[in-house]
Automatic annotation (TrEMBL), chain A:
It comes from Ruixingdingia sedimenti. This is Branched-chain amino acid ABC transporter permease. The keyword Cell membrane applies. The lineage of its organism: Bacteria, Pseudomonadati, Pseudomonadota, Alphaproteobacteria, Rhodobacterales. Keywords: Cell membrane, Membrane, Transmembrane, Transmembrane helix. It comes from the Bacteria.
TrEMBL record, chain B:
This is ABC transporter ATP-binding protein. Keywords: Amino-acid transport, ATP-binding, Nucleotide-binding, Transport. SUPFAM superfamilies: P-loop containing nucleoside triphosphate hydrolases. GO terms for molecular function: ATP binding. It comes from Ruixingdingia sedimenti. Residues 20-260 form the ABC transporter domain. Belongs to the ABC transporter superfamily. Pfam families: ABC_tran. It comes from the Bacteria.
From TrEMBL, chain C:
It is found in: Cell membrane. Pfam families: BPD_transp_2. Its main location: membrane. InterPro entries: ABC_transp_permease (IPR001851), BCAA_transport_permease (IPR052157). The chain crosses the membrane at residues 6-31, 43-60, 66-84, 96-122, 142-163, 184-208, 214-233, 264-281. Belongs to the binding-protein-dependent transport system permease family. LivHM subfamily. This is Branched-chain amino acid ABC transporter permease.
Length: 351, 283, 295
């Protein structure tokens, strides 16, 4: 971490502090105020966009812990999110559990499902493991669609009840925004704390050389399964939030493409940092949103093009972005941000 | 001892008498990590040259610089020249280097584990553009040199013993019809008896086929038994060079590489200090 | 009567298994040389399908369209290798895998944008006869297509084990550095493998698509074939046939006897479940290479 001149640590506690200078406090307060005021300025559509982006951030931070920190590639994050959504929906709609608890149910359900798919990590490595997480996606989809409709609603989905907080029903974009915001903030802090904890260091050891980690006395299988569990906990939370926000769950909200986009967000944002996960999620969601708005306009200028061009266009642009980042900026936006920060710290007197 | 004279000033630099000449090369990994500095050495046709040195001295890097295999480890020769047969080959395409007649046997017996012994040998004929009959003849030559390989020709090479694998990879390198064979620690992890078998085979290759050999070794005793000349590399620099007789009689080398003390087996502090001083001057 | 059912299950299983094997071998050819798991393999099949449809629409005979598409797909494969993967040489396997995810998105999007929406049926290229043999309804195109795939895979297996170029490519599969040290042109091997994989995906598309509706959903065949890849092992060539038949027959059997009980879910989940169980027992797959790790 980059530190200001004259900022010394005199104790361990001091060294672990996240916020060190008055300027950082100022920036944090400014950010908090900005986030709180955002819906008042943005209007309905962009508030919804921010809510969905926030939910994405929660899922992507989970994936960052699995991929960026523990080095286990997963293309199943969207499926884990879906499991969370369905668990929450069953708890809320079928069992009538009151508001915040279905989210916990979703998170825990996804964690169990995720750990199940982390178990093969005991024996399988690399691609093989990544591809078994792909199996998670298919098992999720097929189970929803093919099992009796009484179980998971099959292809009809399950409707979510309106969440009620302290007697106030939440049914406006602003309401959902304020409902999701605390979860996003909590996810960011949880991510940072995991990164700096003993657990985080074990993950990194497993990522960098699992054989060496094993002989150092780290129980590699345990940590791999735990990292799957943590990633799925985040995914499950995100899935449950999305279920509330969308007011229903349906398996088509949780496709393989979403999983790939999540990985793309990590690449664009930067592997191994929470900041990277946040920046990547915001950047790619923004690109997606702009294309969804701009796509139909673009179609007007393309002779013979069809009107459902927006979705494939998103894929082309995101795919190209992922490839370009891998080739030219493999450390992602977080690296660019830090370089900028360093530049402006010294600017305008670089010497 | 090695005199510090720029290579270009030395008479006979790059002359026809030298098959390989490495002139003042500097090697860096990833553009920053300096591994070799001012390393110069030469190999004449038909010669066996030993390159000695401790771990991390830069022996393997020297070989990989010659064969250009450092490229796949993001290494480059950043200064100096490597000439082979009158051509500059530093930072060349490794495949072209093999075609020119320089082949490296890498450290640690890199068998193509899932292929049979014979398939291993066949792969190495790729660079030569030989016809089928010529390939067949080459294979039989390798089998004549290492009869044990003929016996196991159809066995999956991953299941050979360490010694057999070492023979196979040397034989495999010969399939490229090299003028210069670069061997990286052929004795690694082998029993003393096998080590001498391998080195006798190396000497035979040199005698019978006339292949020049540059061999990197930790086991200085065995290497100097067969080599005509030798170099000692430390901390990325050549600190000593000489003929076999010169090296075998050198007090420091005896002390530190052959393990024979100058005064019997007693190693005195003064000897070490004297050696350290020399290392400092030259290194 | 029961024999008839068993025969029917075998016929369905073997013919679908062959298609899985054809797709799977496309993954393996690339993986062996470049150590890249090309997750966009299904999109290659999709592009091949669209290419054939476009060429046939332009008035070419089906066979000419097949050959031209084969050439076209070889070029597509080369382009992906040249534009994306060659620029990532030396990066960890994970980065290469992510890059192919990017390729998947691009190809999938382009395929959907460029191809017309009119629904049409892909012609049966390999004959239109229907027979009834021992109580099983047999289609000529399926039989010929299956034979073609078996021949293709057998040919590839022979190529990699017996021909000189094939041996060189197998050496590349073992170790890039060792192959390079012996004068094998690793880059050329990788490029060739992408071209070959392009051709394979064309054949797979031609056999699989016969009599089906043309749509972008073709790409998902790769994910259905994935269990075959992992079951057989990533380095094997001939082994995918056996893996394909195991999965195909198992799936057909599940469809016949288990699906009535589960509303059709069992046959879809079966390949993935089988794959997971087998990988726990044998992580490198049935015929994949086991790499000994030294500490």
């Amino acid at each position: 971490m980059y530190r200001a001149c004259g900022d010394f640590s005199e104790s361990y506690r001091n060294d672990m502090r996240l916020i060190r200078t008055r300027w950082q406090w100022a920036a944090l307060i400014l950010l908090a105020v900005g986030l709180l005021l955002y819906p008042q300025v943005a209007g309905g559509a962009w508030t919804r966009f921010a809510t969905v982006t926030g939910i994405t951030i929660v899922a992507v931070i989970g994936l960052q812990i699995l991929v960026g920190l523990s080095g286990q590639v997963s293309v199943g994050q969207s499926a884990f999110m879906g499991v969370g959504g369905y668990f929450a929906a069953i708890a809320a709609a079928r069992l009538g559990v009151p508001f915040p608890l279905p989210i916990l149910a979703g998170a825990v359900g996804a964690t169990l499902f995720g750990m199940l798919f982390g178990l093969p990590a005991a024996r399988i490595k690399g691609f093989y493991l990544a591809l078994t997480t792909l199996a998670a996606q298919f098992i999720f989809e097929f189970s929803i669609v093919r099992l009796p409709a009484g179980w998971f609603g099959a292809s009809a989905g399950i409707a979510m009840p309106t969440p009620v907080i302290f007697g106030t029903p939440i049914n406006t974009p602003e309401g959902f925004y304020y409902m999701v915001l605390p979860f996003v903030v909590a996810a960011c802090f949880a991510g940072v704390f995991i990164l700096r904890s003993r657990l985080g260091r074990a993950f990194v050891a497993v990522r960098d050389n699992d054989l060496a980690a094993e002989v150092t006395g780290i129980n590699v299988t345990y940590y791999k399964v735990v990292s799957f569990g943590i990633a799925s906990f985040f995914a499950g939370t995100a899935g449950a939030l999305l279920a509330y926000e969308n007011r229903f769950v349906h398996f088509e909200q949780f496709t393989l493409f979403e999983s790939i986009w999540f990985l793309g967000m990590l690449i664009v944002g930067g592997m191994g940092s929470i900041l990277g996960a946040v920046l990547g999620a915001i950047a790619l969601r923004l690109v997606q949103e702009l294309l969804m708005i701009g796509g139909p306009v673009l179609v007007g200028y393309l002779p013979g093009a069809r009107y459902d061009i927006a979705f494939p266009l998103v894929n082309v642009v995101l795919g190209t972005t992922i490839i370009l980042f891998l080739i030219y900026q493999p450390r992602g936006l977080a690296h660019i941000y830090r370089k900028g920060e360093r530049f402006f710290r010294l600017w305008p007197f670089p010497h | 001892m090695h005199d510090v004279v720029a290579f270009a000033d030395r008479p006979g630099a790059g002359s026809a008498a030298e098959l390989l000449s490495v002139a003042n090369i500097e090697v860096r990994y990833q553009g920053t990590i300096l591994v070799l500095k001012n390393v110069s050495l030469h190999v004449a046709p038909g010669e066996i040259v030993a390159l000695l040195g401790s771990n991390g001295a830069g022996k393997s890097t020297t070989l990989k610089a010659i064969s250009s295999l450092i490229q796949s480890e993001e290494g480059r020769v950043t200064e100096g020249a490597i000439r082979f047969d009158g051509m500059n080959i530093e930072n060349d395409d490794p495949v072209r280097t093999v075609r020119r007649g320089v082949v490296q046997v890498m450290e640690g017996r890199r068998a193509l584990e899932h292929m049979s012994v014979e398939q291993n040998l066949l792969v190495a004929s790729a660079a030569t553009r030989m016809n089928k009959a010529a390939i067949r003849r080459s294979i039989e030559e390798v089998y004549a040199l290492f009869p044990v390989l003929a016996e196991f020709r159809n066995r999956q090479s991953g299941y050979l013993s360490g010694g057999q694998q070492q023979m196979m990879v040397i034989g495999r390198a010969l399939m490229t019809r090299p003028k210069l064979l670069l061997l990286d620690e052929p004795s690694l992890g082998l029993s003393p008896l096998l080590v001498s078998t391998i080195f006798e085979a190396i000497a035979r290759i040199n005698r019978e086929i006339g292949t020049a050999i540059l061999v990197v070794e930790q086991n200085a005793r065995v290497a100097l038994k067969h080599a005509h000349r030798g170099y000692v590399l430390e901390n990325g620099r050549i600190v000593m060079e000489g003929t076999r007789a010169e090296l075998l009689n050198n007090e420091d080398l005896k002390e530190f590489y052959l393990g024979i003390g100058a005064s019997g087996s007693a190693k005195t502090y003064r000897d070490i200090k004297h050696y350290r001083r020399r290392r400092r001057w030259l290194g | 009567m029961t024999l008839e059912i068993v025969l029917r299950v075998l016929y369905t299983g073997v013919t679908t298994g062959a298609i899985y094997a054809a797709v799977a071998v496309g993954f393996n050819v690339i993986y062996r040389s470049g150590r890249v798991f090309n997750i966009a393999q299904g999109e290659m099949v999709m592009i091949a399908t669209f290419m054939m449809v476009a060429l046939m629409g332009a008035g070419f005979s089906p066979w000419t369209a097949l050959v031209l598409s084969g050439i076209g797909m070889a070029l597509v494969g080369l382009a992906v290798e040249r534009l994306v993967l060659r620029r990532l040489v030396g990066q960890p396997e994970m980065a290469l895998f992510m890059a192919t995810l990017g390729v998947l998105l691009v190809m999938n999007g382009l395929g959907h944008i460029l191809i017309g929406a009119e629904p049409q049926i892909f012609p049966e290229l390999f004959g239109r006869d229907r027979w009834r043999i021992a109580g099983v309804n047999v289609r000529e195109s399926v039989l010929v297509g299956t034979a073609l795939i078996v021949a293709l895979i057998a040919g590839l297996a022979w190529f990699f084990n017996a021909t000189r170029t094939g041996l060189l490519m197998t050496a590349v599969a073992e170790s890039h550095q060792t192959a390079r040290s012996l004068g094998v042109n690793v880059r050329a091997s990788i490029a060739v493998s992408w071209a070959v994989s392009g051709v394979i995906s064309t054949v797979a598309a031609a056999v699989f698509m016969g009599g089906r509706m043309v749509s972008g959903d073709v790409a998902s065949i790769a994910f259905v074939a994935l269990p075959v890849v992992l079951l057989a092992g990533l380095e094997t060539i001939g082994g995918v046939l056996i893996g394909g038949i195991i999965v195909g027959v198992g799936q057909a059997a599940a469809a016949r006897w288990l699906d009535p009980l589960t509303e059709g879910g069992a046959s879809l989940i079966f390949p993935f479940a089988l794959m997971l169980v087998l990988l726990m027992i044998r992580p490198q797959g049935l015929f994949g290479w086991k790499h000994v790790e030294r500490i």
